[in-house]
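Entry 12.
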Amino acid sequence: MNTGLVSTRYAHALLLFAIEEGSEDSVYKDMMNVRKNFSNLPELLPTLDNPIGNKTDKRKLMEASAGDNASETYKKFVKLLLDNNRENILNNVALQYIDEYKEYKHIYAVDLTTAEEIGPGIENRLKNVVRKLDSKAEIELRHLVDKDIIGGFVLSMNGNRLDASIKTQLADISKNFHKLNGRDS
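Predicted 3D structure (tokens):
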């Protein structure tokens, strides 16, 4: 069975169990730490994937990857993974859990790129626009400054991208101008 499908099933079951236990927020924090630690420590996966590794050491490592105050639900989940020899899917489960949690909680990751800093007024207007699409929406806004776009903005949300930058508009005008003059750019 492919590990993506297995990870998805484990993550979904974990979310349902965490909701039942009332610990979905704590497990989310645990999984955010796991994701961060797998990114920062590339040797973590080969260590967990080692078939001759000691289960007790793996358990300690998996619990430590969630941070100092790992939830009891997370610890039970680690035991389940170890009992089923699935410790090597922890990072994939963490990534999938984060996605499912955000969907469950209506959390939207929004990337906004502008040519200069923006104020809280613009942030609030953007959040209100998203809330018109989903009244329960929570927005995780990441603002990036890129002077190369000249002006306007680039907005990315849920795999969709709206490029209203001056740079792109100028490129489109140039491309259309070249087409009108019989030249391809």
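Annotation: The longest helix spans residues 3-21. Residues 106-180 form one domain.
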